[in-house]
Amino acid sequence: MTTESNTYPIGKPGVAWGAEEKNIWLNEQTQKRSYFDDVVAVIESLANDFDVEQYGELAYAEHGFADYPLLLVKSKHWSAEKPTVIVTGGVHGYETSGVHGALRFLQTEALKYTEQFNVLVAPCISPWGYETINRWNPETTDPNRSFLQPSPAPEAAQIMAYVAGLEGKIVMHIDLHETTDTDNSEFRPALAARDGIVNDNWNIPDGFYLVGDSQHPAAAFQKAVLDSVAQVTHIAEADDNGKLIGVPVAQFGVINYEGKKYGLCMGLSGADYVTTTEVYPDSANATPEECILAQVAAVVGGLNYVAAHLE
């Protein structure tokens, strides 16, 4: 991947943004697609087979956009006696296959698992980010660094509050993400400008990989997810330094982060089996549809593994 530039048109190099720069950035954002048409309509079409709940709202009409209902989909006949599995998408709203992979899983595979598990899917945690194709929310806060107490992002805070109120044991959580070329052309330079720093990581892996939780690495689980995905698309190879996105590879196709320490969504539940998916839709060897199918395959692979290893 060609190294990009840290130069960004807002702010001064080496100086973190203040309120003025953040407001300039927000005023440049525009709606590019519809959360209500692309996501809400699909969720509502699932209401015969699943329970649909609104767990919160993002009051962003004040910014000239919409007030976004936050929706999740749950299996019917929920029981605290059954283990619970969670799938989240759209924590970074711009990552398209995360949102549509979660929806496609609901449309095609989820019902098969509802006898053994409580299934909960939050397909689009950041609808403003989905509509404006952004990593941040309107406050220039990254929801996937905000799963903390107290949370600086309402996107994270509201799903955290809902999950905290669930009864029973959560055994698995898979968070669906993408790495795209716009990470280098827009989001990494924007982050460097916002924080007044220099970015030195421009690596974008060509293929699918996983980010596990270093506190619960669950190597065999990660391998089962990758084995399922490999039937759909290619797994990313490490770079010449044995790394993916600058992080040492823990096993083929897997790097590990401390989920809770860094406020990542994969720290949401405390489940034993946790992973974050990353696909590369800009690859010459993959299509957007393959990326959606890879997300579904990841969830299915994880569920099949957990089903076979329940105590």
TrEMBL record:
GO MF: hydrolase activity, acting on ester bonds; metallocarboxypeptidase activity; zinc ion binding
InterPro entries: AstE_AspA_cat, Peptidase_M14
Keyword entries, A-Z: Hydrolase, Metal-binding, Zinc
Active site feature: E278
Gene Ontology biological process: proteolysis
Domain Peptidase M14, chain residue ranges per copy: 31-310
Cofactor(s) this protein cannot do without: Zn(2+)
Family affiliation: Belongs to the peptidase M14 family.
Entry protein name: Peptidase
